[in-house]
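FORM 7B: Structural annotation worksheet

SECTION A. Query
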Amino acid sequence: MRKFVSSVVAACALLGTSVSATAGPVLDDIVKTGELRVCFDAGYMPFEMKSKNGSFVGFDIDIGKMMARQMGVKYVPVNTAWDGIIPTLLTGKCHIINAGMTINAQRNMRVNFAEPYIIVGQTILLNPELEGKIKSYKDLNDSKYTIATKLGTTGEQAIKRMISKAKLNVFETQSDAVLEVANGKADAFIYDMPFNAIYASQNTGKVVHLEQPFTYEPLGWAVAQGDMDMLNFLNNFLRQIKGDGTYERIYDKWFKDNSWLSQVQ
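SECTION B. Predicted structure
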């Protein structure tokens, strides 16, 4: 495949125009700086994590690096706290959010999303003492139960909307929240399926995973509103990597093989 940015520059040279006359503001800045700055919040397995040697690894990281490589620019990670990730994008400190972000109406009022690149949903990690007693999220909708989750996530929204009678405890990180269940301080932890599946496989006996998602959550790449050129690029990039097998190879590496766990433990 020809590198996208190189093609843009070559085409502009032939036409005698500048890149800015052809590309939108985000693509234009990527060309000018030679960088693709990508926002994420490290700690969301297996999407973005910090390895033992301090580098960032994960499903989103590999896709972001592939995107930069096909653009012919440098991949620049911008690790950002989740509650500030959209403001970081909107102030131009990164070009794109590639962080396992669920597409929803509130976020879509602030940013534009490309087509979903993966579909996930909320699942439940239970205190083992409740195994067999709790069979779905509906069984947790009782004031006698305490549920933990990460602050500002769709997990928190789902609990407030669908399990409102239970007591809700929110934490700054998913790691702190899930420990409440593992340590017997909460009855359940609700969060995205990929994280829960991996955590359950690492903590057999400490939690029980109800692995059927009870919400539908498409994850998408976010960009500043109004930049149709960047959205066009992202949607075509996604079609290309899904069509040529690149996406499947990256997916299998992070979701069907757990050998990467040794890099982050």
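SECTION C. Observations
The longest helix spans residues 228-243. The chain is about 40% helix and 20% strand.

SECTION D. Sign-off
Analyst initials: ____
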